[in-house]
Every structure is written in structure tokens, then in C-alpha cells.
Amino acid sequence: MSYREENELKPRNGHTLVVGILGRISGCANQKELSLDDQVDHGKQIAYEMYDGEIEFRIITTKGKGERLDRPELLKIENWLNSDELDLLIVEDLGRLVRGPAAHRLCGIAVDHGTRVISPNDFIDTNNENWEDDVLNACKEHLKHNTHTSLRLKHKLMNRFEKYGGATPCPIAGYIKPENAKSYSDWVKKEDATIFIREGLQILKRTLNGEAVAEYFNENGFSPGPYCSKDQWDGRMVLRFYRNPTLKGFPQRGDKHSIKHHETGRRISVRNPNGPRYREEPHLAFFSPDEIDPVLKALAEKNANYKRKKNQNGTDSRHRVPKKRTRAFGQHATCFYCGFHYVWGGNGMTDNLMCSNSREWHCWNSVGFNGPEAAQKLLEVVLDSVATLDEIDSQFREIVQQTHAGGPEKLLARENQLNREEEDIERERAKLKKFFKEIDDIDGDFLSEMLAELKGREKQLLLDRRALEHARSRQLDLPKSTLELKGILQHHLEDVDIHSHEFGDLIRELVPEIHVYLVRLIDGGHLLPRAKICLNLAGSIPDAAASTELQQLLSRELTLDLFEPPQRELIRPEAVRLAAAGLEQREIASRLDGNPTQTAVWKALKLHQQMLEQGLTSPYIFLDEPPDDYKKLRRHRNKKYSFQPKPGYQRPPL
Known about the structure:
Elements: E1 17-25, H1 34-50, E2 55-63, H2 72-82, E3 88-91, H3 94-97, H4 101-112, E4 116-119, E5 124-125, H5 131-164, E6 175-176, E7 188-189, H6 194-207, H7 210-219, H8 235-243, E8 252-253, E9 256-261, E10 266-271, E11 277-278, H9 289-302, E12 334-335, E13 342-346, E14 349-355, H10 356-359, E15 369-370, H11 371-387, H12 393-405, H13 407-438, H14 444-472, H15 482-493, H16 501-510, E16 513-521, E17 528-536, H17 548-553, E18 555-561, H18 567-570, H19 572-580, H20 585-591, H21 598-614, E19 620-622
Parallel strand pairs: 1-2, 1-3, 3-4, 12-16
Antiparallel strand pairs: 4-5, 6-7, 8-11, 9-10, 13-14, 14-15, 16-17, 16-19, 17-18
């Protein structure tokens, strides 16, 4: 195909043709990264055929599925096109860009901004009058190919499974899959695993508790299997294991299948409404159905009340909701001690949250807090901070004016800063490689911490570059005054349902960091959760990320108590005032709200006296380790416990 036409390319900057080239592979096992170089070379060849002058190439090579609409390079390509700098965009075939109507949309943006798009393998050139028909036809063919290939593979693999037991998965614990095995007939049982698996079923039958079986497996060294992500059993793994019908000699296929989520282009796994297909393989059975089915039925009856509630239409209350999208604090609040997130369902209470690492016996902080009550307190703190915005209005207006006036210069300075950060990361990576080559005995924990830190910095750098590209593509949209910002925030916060996922999403924007730690009154008592929060009132304004000064002005660190004060602390200030006026303890008790007893007043005054003796202004003390005198916190004394913080985690200063 020749691209030399009457309307030859002319650089819009007058001297250099700016050409974008996109290369993509899906990342499957049979694809090689060399294919990316071939695609780039093909694009350059076309560009040189079309233009004899100086050419500046801008190249994106990536791995990812063509149906995915949330790939970061798609945003970068759109920013390229919106910048009015790109003269030509070359992609080997349109499916390398993206599949479906999204490809037609990007081609339309290119045409609107004067960028010519060429896809040689699809015979597409947006300089042709019928380019839209060509693009839609190509999209149709690519989608049809995906659908047909998916159906063909599903039918072929199911046929092999039903015909001779082929298309086998990775083996679970207790089985060996020989290297050249082609069917379940080639699988063999691990004879030394039989005693553990059968004894585990007896424990499960007596206790109906997966944790008891997990403890037995771990103590006796029965491994979860070579393909398991964990090297130790837990209760959930045990229950999944015994529910696998392969243990009865009936391996299955088709229990779940994938469907396309059209908003993101992702393929998600859901339960197959037609149910799985089974195949009888007696040589794989550890139990007969009569032995294990009654135990599984008893487990189902015991746990029936703990299932998620159903909606009015009969679907799961979290049907197709991403696991990371939860209510406020869930998978957002961080344990100060180990660095892992808090999750809902703390200590058996559905409205409580607790450290997820503590659930795995790797953190001693098992103290939970009530999520809805904490969300209400956090909402009040945010609203109070919004009410004080008027005090910084003059500074806010000045920063916004400077941001608009010096936009290009600031963006260039920000890009230079990001380039320096990227160079620093590369230098540190090179130093680490050299260091590890020179040392034979490497500490695994130290290595994982260093790599985790580098990955965290690289992730933040990627986010900053996305914000920069987004800011470059158009005029920044920032509130002109704190009054306008207050209106935006109050619109989001007023009449909000603190139980909703939307409130959780908003809190993640306004409060990017929540670290939960424990305090205690100086005279003892219960351990109480307190949070250090980093509030960013510009978090819900996307373009505010382009101004470091604006973010600093609207950010502050606050302390939030996630508990109700004990009675003696609640009445202490008023009791001290009345005692100073000469009243007796019984008289003080009669005058205080809540009708406290004389004993409660005595404890409050004693607490105040201890504060004065120790020179404290607050009766609460920070806990860095579990106290020995608190009988309810015993997790760290269990033989299963071992403190394992998140790799690379460093505690923030309090």
C-alpha cells in the first residue's frame, strides 16, 4: 500500500514531522517482546516512505489486552491528540490501539485535531473520505474474532475434558501431575498425604471449624501445594480444599465462566448458571461421597446465617462490586504497627473494622472500631475544616492566579522534576544490582523492603506523570475562590449516606492517609483506637494535582478519636472544676450529666491527679507494644502468632 498522495504531509510546526507509533502485545505466553520492536520498525518505515524531511518519533510500547479500556496508555494517546502537536499516528492494525467503538472514538479525536491516523494492516487512512466505514468494519472484525475464538476455546477444552479427561488444571494439595500428563487419568495421589487429608476431615467433622484443621495441617507439615500463593493453611483455604469434588473422585470443569464488563473492557469470572460438568475418576478419590457430603452439608447449615444479604432482585448485595470498592475505612485505613489495611467484619461484628494482618496472626493489634460511627466523626471533622476555608481565601486566590499565569513554565518545571526523580530511581536500581552482585548472602527481608520502596516510588511517579499529561492537554479547571471550593465540597458532603460506596470513594480522595494506632488512659483500662489522618481538601478537584502549592495550602494533619471516652475521662473536666469550688464528691455526682456514681467521680479526680503528677496535658498515652496487664489482648501469645509487617513499610511520625 503506497501512502504517497497528492495531499502530502506537512509539519504543523513548520520544520519537524511529529509521528506517534503504538506497539502492543497482549502478554500471552507465546508472544515475545521482539514483536514490539517489529511493530515500531514497521511504523518508522511507513513514516520514512511518506516524508523525506526531519521526523520526531513518539513511541508507546506496552503489554495489555486490546479490549481493556482502562489502560493508561490510552489516556496518554488522547492527550497527544488533544495537544495539537501530533501530525501522524501509526498503528500496525487498529486492534493494537484498542478494540471496539473506543477505536473509532480515538480516530475521531485525531481527525478533529488534524492528526492523520494510518493502520496499514487494516487498510485505514483517515485522509480517505470513507475512513469511518473502514474503522467500524475493522472494529467489527476484531470483536467478531474475539468472540469466535473464546467460544471455540471453551468448546474445545470442554470436549477434551468430557471425552478423555483432558484440559486439566494445576493440581491441588495431595495430588501429583506428572510432567507429560495430558488427562486426569495420568494424575496420581500422594499416598503420604492420605493420612493428613483423612484426619483433617475427622477434625472438621467434630469441630466444623476450618481453623482447627489448618492448625493440624501446619503443625504436621502438610503443604498447601506448589501452586498456592500461601505456604501456610488458614481456615478459608481448608474449606475450599474440602469442597473440591476431586477429593471424591469427580473432577469438574465449567463451574465459572468469564463475561465482558463493557465499561472497562475487563473480563470477569462469574458462576456459570448452567453449573459445572463432572467426570468420574475413582483413582483420585480420598473419600466416598457418603463420607464427606454430610460434613459439607453441616458446614453449609452452620454458616448459612453468615452469608451476604440478598437484594430485592435476589442478587448478592455486593454483586459485581470490585473488592477494593468498599465503604469508608474499608481497605483504606492502615494499621500503624504493621502497615496492612483494615477490613470490615472485625472480631465477628459486621459493622466493625480490624487489621487484616491481625486476622492472619501476624499483628498483635486486634482491637477494632465501629465503622459507621467513625465515618460520622470523620465527616464532622471534614465539614469543620471546610468551614475554616475563608481564613485562607487571599492565599488561595493568589496561588490560583499564579498557576493560570505561569502554567506552561510550571508544567515544564514539574516535568523536569519528574525526570530527575526517574533518574534517581534508575540510579538506585543500578546501585542495588551492583550491591547484590557483590554480596553472596543477601537478607531476603532487606531485599523485599528495598524493592517495595522502589516500586512504591515508581507507582507514585506514574500517577504524577498522568496528572501532568492531563494538565497539559487543556486549561486547568480550578475554583476561583475558597467560596467556590466550599460550594463544591458541601455539595458532595451534605446529605451524603455514610454507609454508601460513594462516600467511601469521596473519603479516599479527601483523606488519602489514615493510620490507626492504640492509646490508653494512664490509669489503665481498655485499649482505644485513634487515627492520624492526612486531610487534603483539594483531593476531589482533579486539576489541583498540578499545583503543589495549592495542595500544601489545603492539606493538614489531624487526630481523630475512633472511640467514645471512658466515663471517668468524660466527666473529668467538670468534676475538677466543681471540686476546685469546694464541693464534695457526692454533690459533684448529683450535679453532673448522666448521673455518675460517687465512685466514678473519685476515679475522675484520681485520673486528673495522676496527670498533674506526671506533667501531662492529656490522660491518654501511646501504645507501642501490647501491654502485659490487659487480659483481652492475647493474640500475640498464641503459638500461631508471628509479627510480620508489610514489606517496605515504615511507620509515619505521630
